[in-house]
Amino acid sequence: MEPAPRDGIQWHWTTPRAQEILRRRSLAGILTFYRELHGLPQQELADLLGYSSSYVSRVETGSRTITDIGALRHIADQLRLPPHCFGITDDADGDHHAMIQFAESVLRLAEIARQVGQASAAVDELWPLVARLEARVEDGRTETDVLRLLARARVGLGVALGHVLPDERLATAARWTGRGLAVARRLGDPTLHTYALRHHGNELRKARLLGAAVDRLTQARDAARTPDERAEAVILLARAAGSAGDRAAFDDAVTEGFRLLDVAPTTSLFSDFSHHEVHVRGLAATGRVQEAVRILERAPTPRLHTTTQWRIISAITAGQVLALRGDHQAARESLTAAVRGAVAHRLPHQIQRVVRASRGLPDVREEAQAALSQLKAAIAA
């Protein structure tokens, strides 16, 4: 008899009850839970394992124990569970721990690469990791630590793609973060869930799915358990609400952001610099250009934690507002600098923002369109 199908039913091994059974390495508990999970009578489980029904019954009641490593490995293979759940430590178990350490290292390096403006390098690192983790899950190996890594890797890949893809392909980035969110939601890990909600909401915003973006980011803000989680959700919510033209939601988020600047730690996403950029851009997007001009001059000085991405974003926002004010020379300087930075770091989405912001500056618009064509050709290649 073939093992049971490996569809979504494998996710039930990630529930608290199942994790407790696996932690205790209780063969009786594992067999009983497996039968409940698949709706199997003892005879069908016995057929699957190649034992008699009475033998399985004695194992489940605890009157018979199995200590032979070969037999335990056979049961693990048939139930598609990792050998360590049965107390077996072998080469496969060592490979598993090595893969976990490798994956953690890749995720850290990809995050660093993205923050220093090398998002394309982050994509190159994350593609093979995601493929490897997904192959393991497809094979039925749904250990909780692997699933957490898969959620983070999918989200990380989506965020990196959101940096390097042009506007018309940003839905791809949102799909990857959404796939990461789907895993995080199942695991019942609040920190991972809010992390995935934040980034999925932000990629939805970039893909112009603004209603869904505001919804996800509102959920992330409300589910936040620490000041830094709430701060990162609030700043992204302000961006999405501003893009959606929702003045009330934008103002509420910006106001809360000001309060959180005093209590939340500074991160690459949430700082006085990024909050100022979001505030200026949202004011302009909600029809308050004069107010945006007024606070533009009060921009905080970039610090060590201010990423290249945020510096480019801020330059574009400043150029856009200066152009709306009629200060074309200052706008030209800011937007031209942004184009050159976006080209250096392969950020087509930001160049497209320059194209939209430079309608009254034909020379800047022409330079941005030429740079965009070159980057799209490079991406296509």
Briefly characterize the structure.
With 381 residues, the protein is an all-alpha fold.
Tell me what you see in this structure.
The chain has helices at residues 16-24, 27-38, 42-49, 53-61, 69-79, 91-115, 119-138, 144-164, 170-187, 190-206, 210-223, 227-243, 247-260, 272-285, 289-296, 308-325, 328-344, 348-357, 362-380. The chain is mainly α and 381 residues long. Among the domains are: 8-88, lambda repressor-like DNA-binding domains (434 Repressor (Amino-terminal Domain)); 90-190, no CATH class.
Notable features of this structure?
381 residues, mainly alpha, 434 Repressor (Amino-terminal Domain), 19 helices, disordered N terminus
Main sheet record: none
What is the general shape? elongated
Oligomer: single chain
Structural class: mainly alpha
What is the mean predicted local confidence, pLDDT?
Answer: 88
Question: What fraction strand?
Answer: under 5%
Question: Uncertain runs with pLDDT below 50, 5 residues or more?
Answer: 1-9
| Cα-to-Cα separation, first versus last residue | 48 Å
Question: What is the N-to-C succession of helices and strands?
Answer: HHHHHHHHHHHHHHHHHHH
Overall number of strands: 0
Helix content: over 70%
Radius of gyration: 26 Å
- Give the number of helices: 19
